[in-house]
Amino acid sequence: MKAVVLSAGQIADYGRVRACVGTPDLVICADGGVSHAQALGLTPTLILGDFDSAGAELIEAEAARGVPVERVPVEKDETDTHLAVAAALERGARELMLVGATGDRLDHTFANLLLLPGIPANVDVSIVDTKNIIRLLRPGGRITVPAATGSYLSLLPLSPEAKGVVAEGVKWPLDGATLRWGASLGVSNQVVEEEAFIAVREGYLVVIQAWD
Fold first, then answer.
1. How large is the angle between the packed helices 14-21 and 33-40, nearest 10 degrees?
2. Do 113 and 164 belong to one domain?
3. Residue among 53, 56, 108 at smallest CA distance from 82
4. What is the CB neighbour count within 10 angstroms for residue 52?
5. Between vectors from CA 147 to CA 124 and to CA 151, what angle results, nearest 5°?
6. Phi/psi at 90 (nearest 5 deg)?
7. Distance (Å, rounded) from C-alpha 136 to C-alpha 112?
8. Are the CB atoms for 28 and 44 separated by under 8 Å?
9. What is the pTM of this model?
10. Is 204 in contact with 117 (CB distance < 8 Å)?
11. How far is CA 54 from CA 31, 35, 148, 192, in A?
């Protein structure tokens, strides 16, 4: 089951993001993410949040057409995006895409990135915005990344070390490398074949396909 969680971050190009989103089974809107759902032509499965970023008229209009709305306290231990991710997982999501999870609020962007390791290992998770597709590799994980015109491929450790990193089909291959906090070895590589193969033996690795 494919789920999209829409948060209130920035989306500069809805067409590009819409192409990545495809046809999800679940659309969970975190607060102001409901406006992104409208712009993307997606019908929310659920809207939840403390509603400090969503317009009251828009929420009322969605509720009037039968969309469930769940209000949560302003003072709470989890962000609205965190609660939306939990709602998607509770409903059986096995592929989870976070959209609107990045933007000028670096604290929210960083917090959303750090949500990824806490998502169950049997769920394929990504963060998508206009210029980035971000995926997480857990220990022993592997992934293929298709070549895309003008894109860069960056590999960054989300744990203090990511060991046994393999990168094939790229301009600067890696064979069992260790990527560490405080180093930038994995930044701005390029896919030079039809697709790149990326793997990690130990630790958590963020795989970012990025465009200028």
1. 80
2. no
3. 108
4. 10
5. 90
6. -60, -30
7. 12
8. yes
9. 0.93
10. yes
11. 5, 7, 35, 43
Sheet of strand 174-180: strand arrangement:
142-146, 195-199, 161-168, 174-180
State the Cα–Cα distance between residues 133 and 41, nearest whole angstrom: 21
> Are 42 and 27 contacting, i.e. CB atoms less than 8 angstroms apart?
yes
- Evaluated on CA atoms 22, 25, 30, 33, the torsion sign reads positive
pLDDT tens track for 13-51: 999 999 999 999 999 999 889 999 999 999 999 999 888
| 122 and 147 assigned to the same domain | no
Tell me which residue range forms the domain holding 110.
2-130
Q: Are residues 116 and 13 in the same domain?
A: yes
Count of positions (residues) in the chain: 212
* 1: Cβ contacts below 8 Å, ≥ 6 apart: 25, 26, 91, 92, 93, 94, 95
